[in-house]
Design brief:
heterodimer, A: about 400 residues, alpha/beta, TIM Barrel, 2 domains, eight-stranded parallel β-sheet, two-stranded antiparallel sheet, about 10% strand, globular, B: about 475 residues, 3-methyladenine DNA Glycosylase II, Chain A, domain 3, Rossmann fold, 3 domains, 17 helices
Chain lengths: ~400, ~475
């Protein structure tokens, strides 16, 4: 026995101490023992065979304190602990091909997770996060870093959608029907439906349809659009408890069901409201047509509330709360509401042309870790980074350690 | 040392559990009205047992030790640096923020290397020490300096360590794999209780001896090898080094996946499997991004920024970074501050009228919502510009201005009701109301419903001060 091993074993004595001590005291005064049918599991039990006068002396506390320091590493093993997750997130299919009754080149599936995101190596994400890029149906004020990429197509939603797909690699396009707002331009549901049809013609990816937030007007617009784009498996963004109060929810949900679309339920940072809205939606729609927006707040303006509500909801869903077992969406573009994303600041805080894009990127990455399935984004650098990092996070396997092992002494 | 130490979860500890171990004299030396109130705040993580002065007395020694054991977080707390500038890292009670609260916000250390010319070194230290940002009334700053030996010369490293220590009182981290180099540094600045980086499977005995001699905490480094980390923490604890920090390796491009998985595996083992050998603070090193062959400094800094943010979210208790670019650091400082706030804190503030300065009958009246972050941002901007005014906080259910307008949580009727309910017409003689710029489209209807004239304010509250200078008092009505 080497001295190194000896200390390794001493260290393990604490646990079985009670049983060893009583065993040894039974043997006190006995000179020889014979063991029958005895198997020795070295890791769990050790026999201490003293030399000397033949008496057994249990090790006492004092002796242990006087032990020598280990001279070699005590071997240890590690196997990751995977928390059992009885729940699973529903899968929602967005977009429909001709064969499926629509006109998209392909459909996308979100959801399906049966473990916390990027946590257990044996349980990778079922589907990569989906990135949807925004289009507005009218000229909107945008920070310069965003505007410079889309200046030429502002006001032309079909063309804007096309460059989102062709130039920036959008998986989906969100058409914000902002002009329908009664307080803005109050464009009609028929005009809105025409806009959506134009975008459907221009691109072949699945679409998200954004309303204006007015519970009455949105219901009219969504109903009309659902009908005009029947079978396309749009995601209608969004329905709210206000619509339930205004008694317009049934109309929208009914139209979504009839024309095969999915619905996004929006609630403001309150899990119980999200559950309540889902219960209302179950009256009209199958679970596989419901996506949740739990609210995305900008970094610096309450992202931590969004982060924690997403982690909490996802954890509860995986632990079995069926009312929360729906995929989630995040408007990462809300990051641009933070003044740090667009304001000219002192030079030491860097250029706003860098601050804005990194703000959107980090907003999205943070909620990616909280389990969000679909992201509404705008800046090309943010989109590229999300794609790269999500792919890397999903890749199984070990790291190549050589490259960073000696970082502390590297010349940079 | 046992592998598994099953502790009572912080959420299962009741104030009674703490109370029965306190002196129960209601002496109020802690500032609380009685021992039960103190116990409640301890269980909430707002106070520590060290803040009960009588508990330090010999007669309460057993109770103190029992309480310390009861309240020990599964991730140990390690302190480096001295005096007022000492930093506590780790001390985590939960895996998820929403379960309780994360304690000891991730300090951010910036590196300096011993090959820097004296003037560059001085400038870099100055930039690190002076970087700060005023965020809703708090000053966010960088926290520590990591000194790296790149010249591989003990004398050079010692001189650099001494030069850094002379220029700043920030806590320090000494970085080298060579015990001789670390010893040279410790000989100069060991009394500052620096964190020592790093013990590896090759040098751990010499590093452990140094940590014991100088009574400094020690980082244990085992890139992508958690079994080795466990082996080293067990061995070093047996050796007598208690204050350990874990470096599971930070690989960034394209390896951020395994990096986050290692951090996550470690924390799941601690909190879900009671693995005591891994119950130490975690060190993340986003600056390894700079080892990439990528030529563009902007691209490298971008990667470092992403890695830092991901690591703050995924359990890093301390970061070492290289970039001093504001756009890289600003989001880290803000996110670090945010994710360490108490998630039980409400999202909203009480609605009502707030007074700033000593407002009179001619002072401006501003409107905002009761979303906490909106309110604190507006409050901070008003205070820092020394504006005298009334601020009417409308109950929007804790929703920000933009969302509240879109979702009809801030409407002309609600604004008119708030003005009436809080008797704003009695506070001032004029009838001019400053509406947030993001609520501009409510202005027409608000004038109609409330009878007040609306002045559309800035979209961002940083514009309140120039706007008031410019447009207050409003021109006399005709």
């Amino acid at each position: 026995m080497t001295p190194g091993n000896e200390h390794g074993q001493n260290s393990r004595e604490k646990k079985p101490e009670g049983s060893i001590t009583s065993l040894l005291s039974l043997l006190d005064g006995v000179e020889t023992i014979e063991l029958d049918h005895f198997t020795l599991e070295v890791k769990d039990l050790e026999l201490f065979i003293p030399t000397g006068n033949g008496q057994f002396h249990p090790l006492d506390q004092k002796k242990r304190e006087l032990r020598k320091r280990p001279s070699a590493l005590i071997p240890e093993i590690f196997s990751p602990y995977h928390e059992p997750c009885p729940g699973r997130i529903s899968e929602v299919v967005l977009g429909a091909t001709r064969k499926e009754g629509g006109s998209r080149a392909g459909s996308l599936t979100i959801g399906g997770s049966d473990a916390p995101p990027f946590t257990f190596s044996g349980k990778p994400l079922r589907h990569p996060p989906v990135l949807a890029l925004d289009v507005f149906d009218m000229e909107v004020p945008l920070p310069r870093a965003l505007k410079e990429n889309v200046r030429d197509v502002m006001g032309d939603p079909a063309e804007w959608a096309r460059i989102n797909v062709e130039k920036f690699g959008a998986d989906m396009v969100t058409v914000h029907l902002m002009s329908t707002d009664p307080l803005i331009r109050n464009s009609s549901p028929a005009e809105a439906a025409r806009t959506v049809e134009n975008v459907l013609q221009a691109v072949d990816v699945p679409l998200i349809i954004g309303g204006c937030g007015d519970p009455h007007k949105d219901a009219e617009v969504f109903t009309k659009v659902a009908e005009a784009a029947s079978g396309e498996r749009l995601l209608l963004n969004s329905v709210t408890l206000d619509m339930a109060d205004a008694k317009t929810l049934e109309k929208v949900a009914g139209a979504a069901k009839e024309h095969n679309h999915a619905i996004l339920g929006f609630t403001g940072l309150e899990i119980n409201k999200a559950k309540e809205l889902n219960r209302r939606l179950y009256e009209y729609l199958p679970r596989e047509s419901i996506v949740m927006d739990l609210t995305t707040v900008a970094l610096g303006y309450g992202l931590e509330y969004s982060f924690s509500i997403h982690e909490r909801a996802r954890h509860a869903a995986l632990m079995g709360d069926i009312e929360l077992q729906h995929p989630t969406i995040s408007a990462s573009t809300n990051a641009w509401a933070a003044r740090e994303a667009w304001m000219q600041m002192e030079a030491k805080y860097g250029s706003k042309d860098m601050r804005g894009p990194i703000w959107e990127t980090l907003n999205a990455l943070t909620l990616l870790l909280a389990g969000v399935d679909l992201f509404m984004m705008m800046h090309p650098a943010a989109i590229r980074t999300m794609r790269d990092i999500a792919a890397d996070l999903m890749k199984p396997g070990k790291a190549e350690t050589g490259s960073v092992a000696r970082w502390a002494e590297a010349k940079i | 040392m046992a592998d598994k130490v099953v502790r009572k979860n912080i959420r299962e500890i009741s104030p009674i559990d703490v109370y029965r171990l306190l002196p129960r004299t209601n002496c109020r030396e802690c500032g609380e009205p009685n021992c039960m109130a103190f116990a409640t705040r301890v269980v909430n993580g707002e106070l520590t047992i060290e803040e009960c002065p009588p508990l330090a007395k010999e007669e309460y020694r057993t109770a103190h030790d029992d309480l310390a054991t009861l309240m020990t977080p599964p991730v140990r707390t390690v302190v480096f640096g001295k005096g007022d500038r000492a930093i506590r890292i780790g001390g985590k009670y939960v895996l998820y923020r929403h379960e309780f609260t994360y304690h000891n916000p991730t300090p951010i250390a910036i590196d300096v290397s011993d090959d820097l010319p004296a003037r560059d070194l001085a400038n870099r230290i100055k930039a690190i020490a002076e970087f700060s940002y005023n965020y809703i009334g708090r000053t966010l700053t960088l926290d520590a300096i990591a000194i790296r030996s790149t010249r591989n010369d003990p004398a050079v490293f010692a001189a650099t360590a001494q030069a850094v220590a002379a220029r700043t009182d920030l806590p320090l981290i000494l970085c080298s794999y060579s015990p001789a180099i670390i010893e040279a540094g410790l000989a100069k600045i060991g009394d500052r209780r620096p964190l020592v980086y790093a013990a590896t499977k090759e040098n751990w005995r010499e590093m452990a001896d140094l940590a014991l001699t100088y009574n400094c905490p020690l980082v244990v480094s085992a890139p992508d090898d958690i079994a080795l980390l466990r082996s080293m923490t067990r061995t070093l604890a047996e050796y007598g080094v208690q204050d350990l920090v874990l470096d599971p390796g930070t690989f960034i491009d394209p390896e951020i996946g395994p990096t986050l998985r290692n951090f996550t595996d470690i924390r799941h083992a601690v909190f879900r499997n009671h693995d005591d050998l891994l119950g130490y603070p975690l060190l993340g090193i986003p600056m390894t991004a700079w080892l990439s062959p990528e030529m563009s400094k902007k691209v490298v800094a971008w990667k470092e920024a992403c890695a830092a943010s991901l690591l703050i979210t995924r359990y890093a208790d301390l970061l070492i970074m290289h970039s001093l670019d504001g756009w890289v650091l600003l989001p880290q400082l803000i996110w670090r501050f945010n994710i360490y706030t108490d998630p039980r804190k409400p999202v909203s503030v009480d609605p009502g009228v707030r007074e700033f300065g000593l407002p009179d009958k001619n002072s401006p009246v501003l409107i905002t919502t009761n979303y906490a972050l909106t309110y604190f941002t507006v409050e901070s901007d008003i205070k820092s510009a020394n504006i005298t005014c009334y601020l009417v906080v409308v109950d929007t259910g804790g929703i920000s201005v933009e969302s509240a307008v879109a979702g009809r949580y801030l409407t002309p009727d609600l604004i008119a009701n708030a003005l009436k309910e809080y008797h704003v017409d009695k506070l001032v003689d004029h009838r001019h109301l400053i509406l947030p710029g993001l609520a501009a489209r409510l202005s027409g209807d608000t004038e109609e419903v409330s009878g007040w004239h609306v002045i559309v304010g800035p979209k961002d509250s940083s514009g309140i001060a120039p706007m008031i200078m410019d447009r207050w008092p409003p021109e006399k009505e005709s």
